[in-house]
Design the sequence.
């Protein structure tokens, strides 16, 4: 919901989005940006004139220490209970090395898979290491999983999935999307190729769950088609979030900043003395997001895009830069701000 | 115009305001002495103790190396997968697009003429770099893989008959196995593979014995991207030519690191990739002897490679154009030319000498880590290894190793099969880790790697 600030949209900043905004752009044409100087705080609105729809959020920003991103994530409550526990456990462990240790611990305690089950059908495709997954029903028609891998990190990931999904009914398993990998905070600790393996592991486990169901339901054709259509919808509705592509619309939407937006702007302005500062309220893009409903503190101001160009970032890695911004906005994050998408550059990098 | 391939001064003089980035590389000027003077004076500075090593000097040209990843300084040890590019090469690419980008070969106007000149000059530079006798023996392709496919489809399909034999080794890169599989299926030719001897290099005696009257082609690597060994190409060519067979050399790992002289080797075909020799991706080349290329039918059809086009048939251009259909990667070719200049300015013999030392240092320090098994031959008086080591640590999956090295130490190595699955199967492993160096690496890089490796091993060991 837009705040009740002035609806007179002052075009306070007009930007020509540079052609390539990659971290490694080392050759820039003589600056042709029409970026104006820091906007006086009395001007309330920020206008992004045009959004280039193909901006891929650089993997580095996805690897920031913040647990939130501006892409719709499956809410944790929809996950099977054991998996929720695991996610929360990993979220509570901040340091990457400690996360690894946790992961390895899971892997170590994974029940070994009998070698006769290490068949081609049980092998996970797209893994750099070898991973096998086996699935079968228990007496109550819950799916039980067993898995193994020759790589201990992958074994850890497999163990996560086995522990999180084993003993649950098929429908619950099929509802799980790979989004929770982001919540684990492991995504930034694991290279994309390994993450693909994680994705494929999950997919295989879901596929096996479904085929167990189909096989067991051989007589009743109705329920199988139901399952099939449920699967169709689920597996395709949420795209894998391994690489997060910004779902920007090439629509210029003028959103007046509410009080939170203003506070963010003021804080960053004061602490970072930026050369350029853009605060864009994109909460409307996440209006359907379950976490937004009811938990937002301030007029539904939950998601923002930030672009900050400041000398304060000099000499800092991207992770550190993002941390700086998050640290400054701690209060907001704790009172309903859900996600920030941050572009943090030094003046030289623009 | 010029028949000699001179290095043109860069186009900075045309646009003094452009490329302000270049001025931030103040050390570029210190290397400018090498540009003006001949390579002889550059060679007097050896890679010895007191003067700063080649690695330290060269690093300054590579901005990408000066960054942190995951909180640690980047240590890039994956140059066998792709090399980094010096500022001069990036500049050349930028210059092209900024000042004279235009389609080549048929244009009349000024920009087009300039682009064509630079493009053909790049071809000459590549020819000179490998000492080809004529620049028309250089066909620009997308990469070495495409170059091998070109030979396979063009030369192979029209020259191989049922029962003909093509000799490869088990250590070949996939790009020098799969095209021959495809073509042999179509033609009925037979593939034969040379295996490794006890030194873990392809068995040369076996290769010699395999060559027979039936052999039509021997396609082998010059330097192995896994074993770090090199093959005696000159001798192999002699044996092959005795029976009328042709030789294709996959020089992807040799051209960037040492002097490669195609006339001396007398190879019939030679392929290499630009992106492994400080050039951009998207361009590579095939060297082929003139008489061979002249007799080969086209590979891809389209514009540029034709002479006259009618509705029902067309006539084709002379090589190399015959094999360069469509608009080429013009800027990339020009940047590859700049890469050849850059490397030549340093001097390939100097680069090679530096890398031999570094290779030895890498091997020795790596071998001293317990439970490490390095593949390929041991370095000795007679055996010089390339500056790379593929290895495994007992009880530790190479992917785990590479992940931890990257995440906790910023060390970039590669893990997997390195596009050599048959070789890994032969060695009895699923995958290996590989650290590969280039002349912009230093001993300190190797040291960092070893320290990180030891830490990684102990971390995973503590979980056993």
Sequence:
């Amino acid at each position: 919901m837009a705040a009740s600030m002035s609806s007179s949209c002052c075009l306070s900043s007009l930007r020509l989005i540079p052609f390539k905004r990659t971290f490694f752009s080392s050759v820039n044409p003589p600056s042709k940006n029409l970026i104006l100087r820091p906007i006086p705080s009395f001007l309330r609105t920020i206008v992004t004139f045009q959004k280039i729809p193909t901006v891929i959020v650089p993997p580095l920003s996805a690897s920031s220490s913040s647990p939130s991103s501006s892409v719709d994530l499956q809410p944790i409550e929809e996950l099977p209970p054991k998996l929720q526990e695991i996610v929360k456990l990993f979220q509570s462990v901040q340091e990457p090395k400690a996360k690894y240790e946790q992961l390895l611990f899971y892997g170590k305690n994974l029940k070994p898979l009998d070698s006769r089950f290490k068949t081609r059908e049980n092998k996970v495709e797209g893994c750099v290491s070898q991973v096998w997954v086996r699935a079968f029903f228990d007496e109550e028609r819950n799916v039980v999983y067993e898995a193994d891998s020759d790589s201990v990190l992958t074994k850890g990931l497999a163990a996560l999935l086995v522990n999180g999904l084993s003993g649950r009914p098929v429908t619950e398993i099929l509802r799980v999307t790979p989004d929770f990998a982001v919540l684990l905070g492991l995504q930034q600790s694991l290279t994309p190729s390994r993450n693909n393996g994680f994705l494929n592991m999950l997919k295989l486990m879901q596929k096996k769950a479904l085929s167990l169901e189909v096989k067991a339901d051989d007589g009743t054709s109705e329920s199988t088609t139901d399952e099939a259509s449920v699967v169709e919808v689920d597996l395709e509705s949420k795209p894998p979030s391994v690489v997060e592509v910004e779902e920007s619309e090439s629509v210029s939407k003028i959103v007046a900043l509410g009080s939170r937006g203003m506070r963010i702007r003021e804080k960053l302005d004061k602490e970072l003395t930026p050369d350029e500062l853009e605060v864009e309220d994109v909460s409307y893009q996440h209006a359907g997001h379950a976490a937004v409903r009811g938990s937002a503190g301030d007029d539904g101001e939950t998601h923002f895009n930030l672009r900050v160009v400041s000398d304060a970032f000099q000499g800092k890695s991207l992770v550190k830069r993002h941390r700086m911004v998050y640290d400054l906005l701690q209060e907001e994050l704790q009172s309903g701000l859900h996600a920030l998408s941050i572009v943090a550059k030094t003046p030289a990098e623009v | 115009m010029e028949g000699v391939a001179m290095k043109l001064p860069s186009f900075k003089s045309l646009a003094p305001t452009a490329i302000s980035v270049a001025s931030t590389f103040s050390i570029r000027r210190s290397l400018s002495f090498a540009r003006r003077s001949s390579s002889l004076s550059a060679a007097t500075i050896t890679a010895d103790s007191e003067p700063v090593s080649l690695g330290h000097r060269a690093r300054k040209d590579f901005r990408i190396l000066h960054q942190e990843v995951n909180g640690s300084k980047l240590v890039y040890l994956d140059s066998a997968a792709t090399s980094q590019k010096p500022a001069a090469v990036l500049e050349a690419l930028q210059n092209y697009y900024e000042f004279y980008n235009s389609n080549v070969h048929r244009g009349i106007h000024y920009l087009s003429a300039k682009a064509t000149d630079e493009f053909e000059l790049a071809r000459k530079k590549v020819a000179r770099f490998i000492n080809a006798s004529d620049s028309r023996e250089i066909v620009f392709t997308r990469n070495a893989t495409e170059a091998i496919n070109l030979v396979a489809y063009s030369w192979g399909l029209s020259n191989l008959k049922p029962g003909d034999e093509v000799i490869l080794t088990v250590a070949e890169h996939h790009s020098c196995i799969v095209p021959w599989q495809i073509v042999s299926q179509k033609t009925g030719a037979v593939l034969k593979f040379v295996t490794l001897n006890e030194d873990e290099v392809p068995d040369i005696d076996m290769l010699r014995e395999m060559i027979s009257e039936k052999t039509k082609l021997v396609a082998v690597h010059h330097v192995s991207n896994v074993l770090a060994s090199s093959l005696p190409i000159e001798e192999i060519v002699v044996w092959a030519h005795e029976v009328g067979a042709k030789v294709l050399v996959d020089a992807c790992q040799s051209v960037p690191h040492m002097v490669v002289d195609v006339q001396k080797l007398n190879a019939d075909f030679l392929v290499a990739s630009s992106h492994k020799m400080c050039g951009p991706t998207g361009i590579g080349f095939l060297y082929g002897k003139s008489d061979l290329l002249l007799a080969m039918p086209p590979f891809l059809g389209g514009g540029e490679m034709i002479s006259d086009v009618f509705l029902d048939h067309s006539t084709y251009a002379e090589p190399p154009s015959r094999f360069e259909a469509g608009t080429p990667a013009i800027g990339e070719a020009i940047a590859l030319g700049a890469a050849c200049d850059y490397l030549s300015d340093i001097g390939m013999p100097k680069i090679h000498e530096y890398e031999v030392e570094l290779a030895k240092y890498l091997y020795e320090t790596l071998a001293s880590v317990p439970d490490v098994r390095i593949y390929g031959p041991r370095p000795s008086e007679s055996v010089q290894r390339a500056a790379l080591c593929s290895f495994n640590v007992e009880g530790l999956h190479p992917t785990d190793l590479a992940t931890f090295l990257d995440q906790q130490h910023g060390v970039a190595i590669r893990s997997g099969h390195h596009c050599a699955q048959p070789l890994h199967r032969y060695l009895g492993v699923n995958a290996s880790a590989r650290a590969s160096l280039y002349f912009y690496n230093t001993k300190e890089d190797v040291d960092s790697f070893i320290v990180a490796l030891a830490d990684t091993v102990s971390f995973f060991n503590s979980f056993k």
